[in-house]
Design goal:
With 454 residues, the chain is mainly alpha-helical. It contains 18 helices and ten strands. The strands form five sheets. A two-stranded antiparallel ribbon has the order 1-5. Strands 2-3 form a two-stranded antiparallel sheet. Strands 4-8 form a two-stranded antiparallel ribbon. Strand 6 and strand 7 form a beta hairpin. Helix 2 packs parallel to helix 6 and helix 8 runs antiparallel to helix 9. The longest helix has 26 residues. The termini are far apart. 44% of the residues are buried.
Protein backbone atom coordinates (compact mmCIF):
# COMPACT_ATOMS: atom_id res chain seq x y z
CA UNK A 1 0.00 0.00 0.00
CA UNK A 2 2.87 2.35 0.85
CA UNK A 3 4.36 1.77 -2.59
CA UNK A 4 1.07 2.65 -4.21
CA UNK A 5 0.93 6.05 -2.51
CA UNK A 6 4.58 6.75 -3.31
CA UNK A 7 3.97 5.89 -6.96
CA UNK A 8 0.95 8.16 -7.19
CA UNK A 9 2.82 11.07 -5.63
CA UNK A 10 5.87 10.63 -7.82
CA UNK A 11 4.01 10.29 -11.06
CA UNK A 12 1.70 13.17 -10.27
CA UNK A 13 4.82 15.30 -10.19
CA UNK A 14 6.40 13.66 -13.20
CA UNK A 15 3.39 14.11 -15.43
CA UNK A 16 2.26 17.59 -14.38
CA UNK A 17 2.24 20.57 -16.76
CA UNK A 18 3.03 18.76 -20.00
CA UNK A 19 3.24 21.45 -22.65
CA UNK A 20 3.01 19.22 -25.68
CA UNK A 21 3.18 15.63 -26.81
CA UNK A 22 6.94 15.31 -26.98
CA UNK A 23 8.25 18.04 -24.71
CA UNK A 24 7.03 16.13 -21.68
CA UNK A 25 9.34 17.19 -18.87
CA UNK A 26 7.08 18.64 -16.14
CA UNK A 27 7.62 21.80 -14.15
CA UNK A 28 7.17 19.95 -10.85
CA UNK A 29 10.13 18.66 -8.82
CA UNK A 30 10.88 14.96 -9.15
CA UNK A 31 11.33 13.60 -5.65
CA UNK A 32 12.36 10.00 -6.32
CA UNK A 33 15.52 9.23 -4.37
CA UNK A 34 15.49 5.76 -2.88
CA UNK A 35 15.41 2.44 -4.65
CA UNK A 36 11.96 1.86 -3.24
CA UNK A 37 10.71 5.13 -4.73
CA UNK A 38 12.21 4.39 -8.12
CA UNK A 39 10.64 0.94 -8.06
CA UNK A 40 7.29 2.54 -7.25
CA UNK A 41 7.75 4.90 -10.18
CA UNK A 42 8.35 2.03 -12.60
CA UNK A 43 5.43 0.12 -11.09
CA UNK A 44 3.12 3.02 -11.93
CA UNK A 45 4.50 3.17 -15.47
CA UNK A 46 3.96 -0.56 -15.96
CA UNK A 47 0.36 -0.14 -14.82
CA UNK A 48 -0.29 2.57 -17.41
CA UNK A 49 1.13 1.04 -20.58
CA UNK A 50 -1.30 1.83 -23.45
CA UNK A 51 -3.73 -0.95 -24.37
CA UNK A 52 -3.27 -0.40 -28.10
CA UNK A 53 -2.39 -3.98 -28.96
CA UNK A 54 -5.92 -4.94 -27.99
CA UNK A 55 -7.36 -1.94 -29.79
CA UNK A 56 -5.77 -3.08 -33.05
CA UNK A 57 -8.25 -5.97 -33.02
CA UNK A 58 -10.86 -3.50 -34.28
CA UNK A 59 -8.65 -2.39 -37.13
CA UNK A 60 -7.74 -5.90 -38.25
CA UNK A 61 -9.96 -8.50 -39.91
CA UNK A 62 -10.81 -10.29 -36.65
CA UNK A 63 -13.88 -8.39 -35.45
CA UNK A 64 -17.19 -7.88 -37.25
CA UNK A 65 -19.68 -5.28 -36.05
CA UNK A 66 -23.16 -3.98 -36.79
CA UNK A 67 -25.79 -1.68 -35.32
CA UNK A 68 -26.72 -4.30 -32.72
CA UNK A 69 -23.24 -4.32 -31.19
CA UNK A 70 -21.74 -0.91 -31.90
CA UNK A 71 -24.11 1.72 -30.58
CA UNK A 72 -24.24 5.04 -28.77
CA UNK A 73 -21.03 6.10 -27.07
CA UNK A 74 -19.18 3.05 -28.40
CA UNK A 75 -20.16 3.89 -31.96
CA UNK A 76 -19.01 7.47 -31.57
CA UNK A 77 -15.74 6.38 -29.94
CA UNK A 78 -14.66 3.34 -31.95
CA UNK A 79 -16.42 3.20 -35.32
CA UNK A 80 -13.78 5.27 -37.08
CA UNK A 81 -11.08 2.91 -35.84
CA UNK A 82 -13.01 -0.13 -37.03
CA UNK A 83 -13.57 1.27 -40.55
CA UNK A 84 -10.11 2.92 -40.95
CA UNK A 85 -11.36 6.52 -41.01
CA UNK A 86 -8.14 8.39 -40.26
CA UNK A 87 -9.01 11.65 -42.04
CA UNK A 88 -11.90 13.79 -40.84
CA UNK A 89 -12.57 11.54 -37.89
CA UNK A 90 -15.57 12.04 -35.67
CA UNK A 91 -14.53 14.58 -33.01
CA UNK A 92 -15.61 12.09 -30.34
CA UNK A 93 -13.58 9.24 -31.82
CA UNK A 94 -10.84 7.75 -29.71
CA UNK A 95 -7.45 7.04 -31.21
CA UNK A 96 -4.32 5.09 -30.52
CA UNK A 97 -1.85 6.16 -27.87
CA UNK A 98 0.99 8.59 -28.35
CA UNK A 99 1.50 10.74 -25.31
CA UNK A 100 1.66 7.85 -22.83
CA UNK A 101 4.32 6.09 -24.88
CA UNK A 102 6.55 9.12 -24.68
CA UNK A 103 5.75 9.67 -21.00
CA UNK A 104 7.01 6.15 -20.42
CA UNK A 105 10.15 6.83 -22.44
CA UNK A 106 10.75 10.03 -20.47
CA UNK A 107 10.49 8.23 -17.15
CA UNK A 108 12.69 5.38 -18.40
CA UNK A 109 15.27 7.98 -19.47
CA UNK A 110 15.04 9.68 -16.09
CA UNK A 111 15.82 6.44 -14.28
CA UNK A 112 18.71 5.69 -16.64
CA UNK A 113 20.20 9.18 -16.27
CA UNK A 114 19.86 9.29 -12.47
CA UNK A 115 20.99 5.76 -11.65
CA UNK A 116 24.07 7.02 -9.81
CA UNK A 117 21.86 9.06 -7.48
CA UNK A 118 19.59 6.22 -6.31
CA UNK A 119 19.97 5.64 -2.57
CA UNK A 120 19.08 2.83 -0.16
CA UNK A 121 19.40 0.12 -2.79
CA UNK A 122 21.98 -2.52 -3.62
CA UNK A 123 24.02 -2.33 -6.78
CA UNK A 124 22.06 -5.30 -8.17
CA UNK A 125 18.73 -3.60 -7.42
CA UNK A 126 19.82 -0.40 -9.14
CA UNK A 127 21.07 -2.28 -12.19
CA UNK A 128 17.79 -4.17 -12.43
CA UNK A 129 15.81 -0.91 -12.37
CA UNK A 130 18.00 0.54 -15.11
CA UNK A 131 17.79 -2.62 -17.20
CA UNK A 132 14.00 -2.59 -17.00
CA UNK A 133 14.05 1.06 -18.05
CA UNK A 134 16.02 0.21 -21.19
CA UNK A 135 13.54 -2.56 -21.97
CA UNK A 136 10.58 -0.23 -21.42
CA UNK A 137 12.11 2.34 -23.76
CA UNK A 138 12.79 -0.33 -26.37
CA UNK A 139 9.27 -1.72 -26.15
CA UNK A 140 7.58 1.69 -26.34
CA UNK A 141 9.58 2.61 -29.45
CA UNK A 142 8.82 -0.82 -30.94
CA UNK A 143 5.07 -0.36 -30.51
CA UNK A 144 5.19 3.21 -31.79
CA UNK A 145 7.15 2.36 -34.93
CA UNK A 146 4.73 -0.47 -35.71
CA UNK A 147 1.72 1.79 -35.32
CA UNK A 148 2.92 5.05 -36.86
CA UNK A 149 5.54 4.06 -39.45
CA UNK A 150 5.55 1.72 -42.46
CA UNK A 151 6.36 -1.91 -41.72
CA UNK A 152 10.07 -2.67 -41.85
CA UNK A 153 9.47 -5.57 -44.27
CA UNK A 154 7.33 -3.48 -46.65
CA UNK A 155 9.49 -0.40 -47.09
CA UNK A 156 13.07 0.72 -47.59
CA UNK A 157 13.97 1.05 -43.90
CA UNK A 158 17.03 3.25 -44.40
CA UNK A 159 15.11 5.87 -46.37
CA UNK A 160 11.62 5.62 -44.85
CA UNK A 161 10.31 7.99 -42.19
CA UNK A 162 9.95 6.30 -38.82
CA UNK A 163 9.08 7.95 -35.51
CA UNK A 164 10.82 10.33 -33.10
CA UNK A 165 13.22 8.60 -30.71
CA UNK A 166 12.99 9.83 -27.13
CA UNK A 167 16.43 9.04 -25.70
CA UNK A 168 16.90 11.77 -23.11
CA UNK A 169 14.87 13.36 -20.35
CA UNK A 170 15.58 16.74 -21.92
CA UNK A 171 13.12 19.60 -21.51
CA UNK A 172 14.58 21.51 -24.45
CA UNK A 173 14.80 18.69 -26.96
CA UNK A 174 12.83 19.21 -30.17
CA UNK A 175 12.40 15.73 -31.51
CA UNK A 176 12.22 14.86 -35.17
CA UNK A 177 11.64 11.57 -36.91
CA UNK A 178 14.36 9.01 -37.43
CA UNK A 179 14.36 6.45 -40.22
CA UNK A 180 12.66 3.12 -39.66
CA UNK A 181 16.10 1.46 -39.76
CA UNK A 182 17.50 3.80 -37.11
CA UNK A 183 14.54 3.21 -34.83
CA UNK A 184 14.96 -0.56 -35.06
CA UNK A 185 18.70 -0.28 -34.47
CA UNK A 186 18.04 1.75 -31.33
CA UNK A 187 15.51 -0.83 -30.14
CA UNK A 188 18.03 -3.65 -30.56
CA UNK A 189 20.76 -1.58 -28.90
CA UNK A 190 18.52 -0.90 -25.90
CA UNK A 191 17.68 -4.59 -25.59
CA UNK A 192 21.37 -5.47 -25.63
CA UNK A 193 22.15 -2.86 -22.98
CA UNK A 194 19.25 -4.05 -20.84
CA UNK A 195 20.63 -7.58 -20.95
CA UNK A 196 23.88 -6.35 -19.42
CA UNK A 197 22.07 -4.60 -16.58
CA UNK A 198 19.28 -6.96 -15.57
CA UNK A 199 20.00 -9.70 -13.06
CA UNK A 200 16.55 -11.02 -12.11
CA UNK A 201 16.17 -14.10 -14.27
CA UNK A 202 12.43 -14.54 -13.71
CA UNK A 203 9.86 -12.76 -11.58
CA UNK A 204 7.45 -14.77 -9.47
CA UNK A 205 3.74 -14.67 -10.22
CA UNK A 206 2.28 -11.35 -9.22
CA UNK A 207 5.42 -9.56 -10.41
CA UNK A 208 5.66 -11.06 -13.88
CA UNK A 209 4.45 -7.78 -15.38
CA UNK A 210 8.08 -6.64 -15.04
CA UNK A 211 10.82 -7.18 -17.57
CA UNK A 212 13.39 -9.76 -16.50
CA UNK A 213 16.57 -11.17 -17.99
CA UNK A 214 14.50 -14.02 -19.46
CA UNK A 215 12.39 -11.57 -21.48
CA UNK A 216 15.37 -10.27 -23.44
CA UNK A 217 15.32 -13.05 -26.03
CA UNK A 218 11.52 -12.81 -26.21
CA UNK A 219 11.49 -9.16 -27.23
CA UNK A 220 14.50 -9.61 -29.49
CA UNK A 221 12.83 -12.54 -31.27
CA UNK A 222 9.66 -10.54 -31.92
CA UNK A 223 11.63 -7.53 -33.17
CA UNK A 224 13.67 -9.78 -35.49
CA UNK A 225 10.48 -11.39 -36.81
CA UNK A 226 9.07 -7.98 -37.70
CA UNK A 227 12.34 -7.15 -39.47
CA UNK A 228 12.36 -10.38 -41.45
CA UNK A 229 15.71 -11.21 -39.83
CA UNK A 230 14.99 -14.93 -39.87
CA UNK A 231 18.27 -16.18 -38.39
CA UNK A 232 18.07 -13.89 -35.39
CA UNK A 233 14.37 -14.61 -34.93
CA UNK A 234 14.96 -18.37 -34.99
CA UNK A 235 17.94 -18.29 -32.64
CA UNK A 236 16.20 -16.08 -30.10
CA UNK A 237 12.96 -18.07 -30.27
CA UNK A 238 14.97 -21.21 -29.52
CA UNK A 239 16.58 -19.41 -26.56
CA UNK A 240 13.11 -18.61 -25.24
CA UNK A 241 11.88 -22.17 -25.67
CA UNK A 242 14.92 -23.55 -23.87
CA UNK A 243 13.66 -21.62 -20.85
CA UNK A 244 9.90 -21.92 -21.43
CA UNK A 245 9.13 -25.14 -23.33
CA UNK A 246 5.76 -25.83 -21.71
CA UNK A 247 2.45 -25.25 -23.49
CA UNK A 248 -1.01 -25.15 -22.00
CA UNK A 249 -2.56 -28.47 -22.98
CA UNK A 250 -5.90 -27.87 -24.71
CA UNK A 251 -6.03 -31.34 -26.26
CA UNK A 252 -8.36 -32.23 -23.42
CA UNK A 253 -10.65 -29.81 -21.62
CA UNK A 254 -8.98 -27.03 -19.66
CA UNK A 255 -10.18 -23.96 -17.81
CA UNK A 256 -6.91 -22.03 -18.17
CA UNK A 257 -6.39 -20.00 -21.32
CA UNK A 258 -2.88 -19.81 -22.78
CA UNK A 259 -3.00 -16.01 -22.39
CA UNK A 260 -3.64 -16.17 -18.64
CA UNK A 261 -0.77 -15.15 -16.40
CA UNK A 262 -1.49 -18.40 -14.56
CA UNK A 263 -0.86 -20.43 -17.73
CA UNK A 264 2.18 -22.70 -17.76
CA UNK A 265 3.38 -20.89 -20.87
CA UNK A 266 3.23 -17.37 -19.44
CA UNK A 267 6.54 -15.50 -19.71
CA UNK A 268 5.56 -11.87 -19.11
CA UNK A 269 2.10 -10.64 -18.16
CA UNK A 270 2.24 -6.87 -18.58
CA UNK A 271 -0.54 -6.02 -21.02
CA UNK A 272 -4.22 -6.81 -20.76
CA UNK A 273 -4.71 -8.53 -24.08
CA UNK A 274 -8.13 -7.08 -24.80
CA UNK A 275 -10.45 -5.28 -22.41
CA UNK A 276 -14.06 -6.26 -21.79
CA UNK A 277 -15.13 -2.93 -23.29
CA UNK A 278 -13.28 -3.52 -26.56
CA UNK A 279 -14.34 -7.16 -26.85
CA UNK A 280 -18.00 -6.12 -26.51
CA UNK A 281 -17.87 -3.77 -29.51
CA UNK A 282 -18.50 -6.51 -32.03
CA UNK A 283 -18.38 -10.23 -32.64
CA UNK A 284 -15.91 -12.67 -34.11
CA UNK A 285 -15.58 -12.40 -37.86
CA UNK A 286 -17.27 -15.53 -39.30
CA UNK A 287 -14.31 -15.97 -41.64
CA UNK A 288 -12.01 -16.26 -38.63
CA UNK A 289 -14.34 -18.76 -36.96
CA UNK A 290 -14.38 -20.89 -40.10
CA UNK A 291 -10.62 -21.31 -39.87
CA UNK A 292 -10.95 -23.47 -36.75
CA UNK A 293 -11.13 -27.06 -37.92
CA UNK A 294 -12.80 -30.04 -36.30
CA UNK A 295 -11.00 -30.93 -33.10
CA UNK A 296 -9.38 -27.52 -32.64
CA UNK A 297 -9.91 -26.79 -28.96
CA UNK A 298 -8.99 -23.13 -29.30
CA UNK A 299 -12.36 -22.22 -30.79
CA UNK A 300 -14.33 -23.09 -27.67
CA UNK A 301 -11.51 -21.98 -25.37
CA UNK A 302 -11.25 -18.53 -26.90
CA UNK A 303 -14.85 -17.91 -28.00
CA UNK A 304 -18.47 -18.73 -27.18
CA UNK A 305 -21.74 -18.51 -29.08
CA UNK A 306 -23.81 -15.43 -28.25
CA UNK A 307 -26.50 -16.14 -30.84
CA UNK A 308 -26.86 -18.67 -33.63
CA UNK A 309 -24.87 -16.42 -35.96
CA UNK A 310 -22.63 -14.51 -33.57
CA UNK A 311 -19.71 -15.73 -31.48
CA UNK A 312 -17.94 -13.45 -29.02
CA UNK A 313 -14.78 -13.54 -26.97
CA UNK A 314 -15.10 -15.82 -23.97
CA UNK A 315 -14.49 -13.61 -20.95
CA UNK A 316 -15.12 -15.05 -17.51
CA UNK A 317 -15.74 -12.49 -14.79
CA UNK A 318 -13.66 -14.32 -12.20
CA UNK A 319 -10.55 -14.49 -14.36
CA UNK A 320 -10.87 -11.40 -16.52
CA UNK A 321 -7.93 -9.61 -14.94
CA UNK A 322 -5.79 -12.74 -15.28
CA UNK A 323 -5.78 -12.45 -19.06
CA UNK A 324 -2.59 -10.47 -19.28
CA UNK A 325 0.02 -11.49 -21.77
CA UNK A 326 3.00 -9.75 -23.32
CA UNK A 327 5.01 -12.89 -24.06
CA UNK A 328 4.07 -16.58 -23.84
CA UNK A 329 5.62 -19.78 -25.12
CA UNK A 330 3.04 -20.39 -27.87
CA UNK A 331 4.20 -17.28 -29.74
CA UNK A 332 7.77 -18.54 -29.88
CA UNK A 333 6.86 -21.95 -31.24
CA UNK A 334 5.24 -20.01 -34.08
CA UNK A 335 8.20 -17.65 -34.54
CA UNK A 336 10.60 -20.59 -34.60
CA UNK A 337 8.45 -22.40 -37.16
CA UNK A 338 8.04 -19.37 -39.44
CA UNK A 339 11.70 -18.40 -39.26
CA UNK A 340 12.90 -21.98 -39.85
CA UNK A 341 10.67 -22.29 -42.91
CA UNK A 342 11.99 -19.03 -44.36
CA UNK A 343 15.53 -20.30 -43.78
CA UNK A 344 14.71 -23.48 -45.67
CA UNK A 345 14.96 -25.63 -42.53
CA UNK A 346 11.79 -27.63 -43.08
CA UNK A 347 12.47 -30.22 -40.39
CA UNK A 348 12.77 -27.54 -37.70
CA UNK A 349 9.70 -25.72 -38.98
CA UNK A 350 7.64 -28.92 -38.78
CA UNK A 351 9.02 -29.78 -35.35
CA UNK A 352 7.89 -26.51 -33.82
CA UNK A 353 4.53 -26.14 -35.54
CA UNK A 354 3.61 -29.75 -34.75
CA UNK A 355 4.61 -29.33 -31.11
CA UNK A 356 2.14 -26.45 -30.83
CA UNK A 357 -0.61 -28.25 -32.71
CA UNK A 358 -0.33 -31.32 -30.52
CA UNK A 359 -1.42 -29.22 -27.52
CA UNK A 360 -4.26 -27.50 -29.38
CA UNK A 361 -6.12 -30.30 -31.19
CA UNK A 362 -7.85 -33.43 -29.99
CA UNK A 363 -5.43 -36.36 -30.46
CA UNK A 364 -7.07 -38.03 -33.47
CA UNK A 365 -7.48 -34.74 -35.31
CA UNK A 366 -3.90 -33.74 -34.53
CA UNK A 367 -2.70 -36.96 -36.15
CA UNK A 368 -4.64 -36.15 -39.31
CA UNK A 369 -3.62 -32.51 -39.61
CA UNK A 370 -0.02 -33.17 -38.62
CA UNK A 371 0.42 -35.82 -41.31
CA UNK A 372 -0.97 -33.40 -43.92
CA UNK A 373 1.96 -31.04 -43.30
CA UNK A 374 4.57 -33.58 -44.34
CA UNK A 375 5.77 -33.10 -47.86
CA UNK A 376 4.58 -29.50 -48.23
CA UNK A 377 6.94 -27.19 -50.08
CA UNK A 378 8.11 -23.92 -48.55
CA UNK A 379 5.29 -21.81 -49.97
CA UNK A 380 2.57 -24.21 -48.88
CA UNK A 381 4.08 -24.60 -45.42
CA UNK A 382 4.28 -20.82 -45.11
CA UNK A 383 0.51 -20.66 -45.66
CA UNK A 384 -0.13 -23.34 -43.05
CA UNK A 385 2.11 -21.71 -40.44
CA UNK A 386 0.39 -18.36 -41.05
CA UNK A 387 -3.02 -20.01 -40.60
CA UNK A 388 -1.92 -21.59 -37.32
CA UNK A 389 -0.62 -18.21 -36.18
CA UNK A 390 -3.96 -16.60 -37.00
CA UNK A 391 -5.85 -19.27 -35.05
CA UNK A 392 -3.46 -19.32 -32.12
CA UNK A 393 -3.07 -15.56 -31.69
CA UNK A 394 -6.67 -14.50 -32.45
CA UNK A 395 -7.89 -11.50 -30.45
CA UNK A 396 -4.50 -11.21 -28.76
CA UNK A 397 -3.10 -8.05 -30.32
CA UNK A 398 -0.96 -9.64 -33.03
CA UNK A 399 -3.11 -9.85 -36.15
CA UNK A 400 -2.91 -6.20 -37.27
CA UNK A 401 0.87 -6.25 -37.01
CA UNK A 402 1.03 -9.57 -38.89
CA UNK A 403 -1.06 -8.12 -41.69
CA UNK A 404 1.27 -5.12 -41.87
CA UNK A 405 4.52 -7.06 -41.94
CA UNK A 406 3.36 -9.63 -44.50
CA UNK A 407 1.06 -9.21 -47.49
CA UNK A 408 -1.06 -6.22 -46.37
CA UNK A 409 -4.12 -7.74 -48.06
CA UNK A 410 -7.35 -6.05 -49.05
CA UNK A 411 -9.91 -6.17 -46.25
CA UNK A 412 -13.62 -5.56 -46.80
CA UNK A 413 -15.95 -4.86 -43.89
CA UNK A 414 -19.75 -4.69 -44.07
CA UNK A 415 -21.69 -2.80 -41.41
CA UNK A 416 -25.41 -3.57 -41.16
CA UNK A 417 -27.53 -0.66 -39.96
CA UNK A 418 -30.64 -0.95 -37.80
CA UNK A 419 -32.85 -0.76 -40.90
CA UNK A 420 -30.89 -3.71 -42.41
CA UNK A 421 -29.19 -1.60 -45.07
CA UNK A 422 -25.48 -2.16 -45.42
CA UNK A 423 -22.41 0.05 -45.58
CA UNK A 424 -19.22 -1.35 -47.07
CA UNK A 425 -15.71 -0.23 -46.13
CA UNK A 426 -12.56 -1.31 -47.95
CA UNK A 427 -8.91 -1.25 -46.96
CA UNK A 428 -7.06 -1.68 -50.24
CA UNK A 429 -4.07 -3.91 -50.82
CA UNK A 430 -1.01 -2.13 -49.32
CA UNK A 431 -3.29 0.76 -48.34
CA UNK A 432 -1.54 3.76 -46.76
CA UNK A 433 -3.92 3.30 -43.82
CA UNK A 434 -1.93 0.26 -42.76
CA UNK A 435 0.14 3.00 -41.12
CA UNK A 436 -1.52 5.35 -38.64
CA UNK A 437 -1.25 9.10 -39.01
CA UNK A 438 0.52 11.02 -36.28
CA UNK A 439 -2.14 12.49 -33.95
CA UNK A 440 -3.06 15.97 -35.15
CA UNK A 441 -2.70 17.31 -31.60
CA UNK A 442 0.90 16.11 -31.54
CA UNK A 443 1.69 17.75 -34.88
CA UNK A 444 0.10 21.03 -33.80
CA UNK A 445 2.04 20.97 -30.53
CA UNK A 446 5.33 20.26 -32.30
CA UNK A 447 5.27 21.55 -35.91
CA UNK A 448 8.69 20.00 -36.53
CA UNK A 449 7.49 16.57 -35.55
CA UNK A 450 7.04 15.28 -39.08
CA UNK A 451 10.18 16.89 -40.52
CA UNK A 452 12.11 14.08 -42.13
CA UNK A 453 15.60 14.61 -43.48
CA UNK A 454 17.08 11.27 -44.38
Amino acid sequence: MKLQYIAIALVALLLTSCNDFLDIRPTGKVIAQTGEEYRALLTYVYDHIPEDRGLTTLRSDEMAADASTLTGYDYDSYFDIWNWTDYNRNPTSLYFGWRRYYHTCYIANYVIEHQSEITDATDAEIKQLVGESYMLRAYMHFLLVNLYAPAYTNCEPETTRGIPLQLKADVNAILRCSSVAKVYKQILDDIETAEDYMNVEKWEKGYSYRFSKNTVSALRARVALYMGNWKLAFDEAENVLDLYPDLQDLSSSTTVKPISYESVESIMALEQVITTNISALGYVNPELLSMYRTGDQRKSTYFKAKTIKQWVLRKEKDNYDKERCTFRAGEFYLIAAEAANELGETADALKYIKALMQKRYKPNDYTTYSAALDGLDQDALRVEIAAERQREMAYQGHRWFDLRRTTQPEIIKVYTLADKTEETYTLEQADERYTLRFPQEAVEANPELEIWNN
